[in-house]
Design a protein that fits this description.
Order of helices and strands: HHHH
Radius of gyration: 37 Å
Helix content: 40-55%
Mean pLDDT: 76
Distance between the termini: 88 Å
Structural class: mainly alpha
């Protein structure tokens, strides 16, 4: 830009003053910030990253092992539907003593 073009541009700016519009204040939300004064800087933009490997599943309890071992036997022997067999299996488990449940 030449000095003459620059002066014309500056003169134009003096003639037409621009009015800045005020913006409404924005609400700032920050997560995981403590309000204690520290010398450390806190990076607010950090978010936990999902692990690439899913966490291990919860171990099965003894009733699940018992049910898996006996449900098919109940269906075959007593000719029941699976819903009725599950009910019967639950009743059998409830009637068992702690010693009977111990192998499962």
């Amino acid at each position: 830009m030449t000095p003459a073009e620059k002066n014309a541009y500056l003169e134009q700016g003096k003639e037409e003053p621009q009015v800045q519009q005020k913006r409404a204040p924005t609400k700032m939300v920050a997560a995981n910030i403590s309000f204690k004064k520290t010398s450390k800087k806190v990076d607010v933009a950090e978010k936990p990253v999902a692990p690439s490997v899913p966490p291990p599943k919860k171990a099965s309890n003894s009733y699940i092992h018992f049910k898996q071992a006996t449900i098919q036997k109940i269906v075959d022997e007593e000719k029941l539907s699976f819903q009725e067999a599950f009910t019967k299996c639950g009743e059998m488990w409830g009637k068992m003593t702690e010693e009977d449940k111990k192998p499962w």
